[in-house]
Amino acid sequence: MSAKIKKIGVMTSGGDAPGMNAAIRSVVRTCAYHNIECVGIYRGYQGLIEGEMKELNARSVRNIINRGGTILKSARSKEFRTKEGRQKAHENLVKNDIEALVLIGGDGTFTGGMIFNEEFGYPVIGIPGTIDNDIYGTMSTLGYDTALNTVVEAIDRIRDTASSHDRLFFVEVMGRDAGHIALNVGVGAGAEEILIPEENLGLERLLESLEHSRTTGKTSSIVVVAEGDKSGKNVFELAEYVEENLPNYDIRVSVLGHMQRGGSPSCYDRVLASRMGVKAVETLLEGKSNYMVGVIKDEIILTPLDLAVKGKSEIDKELIRVSEIMST
Ligand code: F6P
Asked: Is the Cβ–Cβ distance between 126 and 292 less than 8 Å?
């Protein structure tokens, strides 16, 4: 391996996700292993523009593998969307002798990295970090597995109270425009119905299904609603609509919100982050750039960044069928 690059920068950008710290640790330690310097850039692209950075060594990243959030902090930068902002960011990198960047984030982060690469020929590698799992080129993004476990645990608790009071709960989960979280936790937590943006069930079907459940002896139910669902109603309006049409149900709504993004990463996310960090640094050292590191069938692979941004991450259609059978 020819270590032409002497100094790499690492940053987290966009929504934080559990496993980002484990990825930072991996990038820093892989740099140390290959005897190259590593610089942590704070608050994503905004920190890059403002020159907020610090040298990190193997010891700087101790005791963070188990921590949620990101020690480098994160931000969504408006200034980086301007040519002047990117110019300032590039000047800071040159001034600090940072020759390549590892970007940990979602598609917004990667789009920024691609433009930066186009404009300055600057080497970048992406690591997908978002709970939404909405990135093409990887079966799992960092934080997704942890979020699934967090949400399943939350819904289990809601089930306790739903069952004690014979209630129907509508639980809204995150995922932006994707239904991965909703579909998987819906199956994992035994939901009666799962509403996701990729498959519009229709309100009539929802009523029929809930009425059928009641007449077949179910006294409590959980409906998981993805925040991006396309029913045309938000979770509160959905609950009202069902209440008006099925007055026998006692209904409550629970919006899980940002608690889904927090917490200690699962073992799966920590291992994935460690593997992705190694691959990201070693890919740069091989002289390659403009790729995203992903995992497909447990193999760590590279996907061109533009494909990762433009491609669509598909939901598992078989899970929809499994969910239908399970709610019989
Ligand atoms: O992309 C992660 C995510 O948590 C989405 O699931 C959600 O739609 C969005 O970020 C919320 O963003 P913010 O934290 O800026 O409100």
From this structure: yes
pLDDT tens for each residue of 111-133:
999 999 999 999 999 999 999 99
Which positions ≥6 away from 42 have C-beta within 8 Å?
11, 52, 53, 54, 72, 73
Query: CA–CA separation, 235 vs 121, rounded Å?
Result: 45
Same fold, 7-142+265-310 and 144-261: yes
- Is any atom of ligand 1 closer than 6 Å to the C-beta of 129? no
**Segments making up each domain of the chain, as ranges:** 7-142+265-310, 144-261
Centre of ligand 1 from the C-alpha of residue 257, in Å? 9
| Ligand 1 atom nearest to 175, measured from its CA | 6
Instruction: Catalytic residue, from 16, 132, 145, 269: name it.
Output: 132
In CATH, 7-142+265-310 is 3.40.50.450: yes
Q: Which ligand 1 atom minimizes the distance to the CA of 134?
A: 1
Per-chain mean pLDDT for the chain: 96
Q: What is the DSSP string of 121-160?
A: ---EEEEEB-TT---TT-S--BTHHHHHHHHHHHHHHHHH
CA 157 to the chain's CA centroid: 23
What confidence tens digit (pLDDT) does each residue in 51-97 have?
999 999 999 999 999 999 999 999 989 999 999 999 999 999 999 99
Query: What ligand 1 atom has the least distance to the C-alpha of 131?
Result: 2
- The reply to whether the predicted model has a pTM over 0.90 is yes
Top mutation candidate among 78, 131, 225 for ligand 1, by most atoms within 8 Å of CB: 131
Minimal-distance CA residue to ligand 1 atom 14: 15
130 touches ligand 1 (CB under 6 Å): yes
Active site annotation includes 132: yes
The whole-number pLDDT of residue 259 equals 98
CATH for 144-261 (3.40.50.460, 3.30.420.10, 3.40.50.880, 3.30.720.10): 3.40.50.460
Q: What is the dihedral of CA 318, 319, 322, 328, to 10 degrees?
A: -130
